[in-house]
């Protein structure tokens, strides 16, 4: 009885791929991408102008928000200006209370 051969036949991957035939690609090819319809220079200029102008609705919304923000700022300023006098009185009261509480020690 002779020894068994444990050799495995070598399979060339490139030759195997060629034997299967051309690969079915999914999606557009490079040629499809290069041959696509492109806008003319005039159309590109028009699109850029539209972007610069922006939408009217957005401009109105921003304007309204700016007005609301200004009103809110005015309210806060009034509160701070009117509240500054009362806050100084509060500070004086706190100082007095601290002095009183310090006497017990």
UniProtKB/TrEMBL annotation:
Residues 73-105 are annotated as: Disordered. Residues 89-105 have a biased composition (Basic residues). It comes from the Eukaryota. InterPro entries: Fam133. Belongs to the FAM133 family. PANTHER family: PROTEIN FAM133, PROTEIN FAM133B. This is Family with sequence similarity 133 member B. The lineage of its organism: Eukaryota, Metazoa, Chordata, Craniata, Vertebrata.
């Amino acid at each position: 009885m002779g020894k068994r051969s444990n050799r495995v036949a070598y399979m060339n991957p490139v030759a195997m791929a060629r034997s299967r035939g051309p690969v079915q690609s999914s999606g557009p090819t490079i040629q499809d991408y290069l041959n696509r319809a492109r806008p003319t220079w005039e159309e590109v200029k028009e699109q850029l102008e539209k972007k610069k102008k922006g939408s009217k609705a957005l401009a109105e919304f921003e304007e309204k928000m700016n007005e609301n923000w200004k009103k809110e700022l005015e309210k806060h300023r009034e509160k701070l200006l009117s509240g500054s006098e009362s806050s100084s009185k509060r500070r004086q009261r706190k100082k007095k209370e601290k002095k009183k509480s310090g006497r017990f020690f």
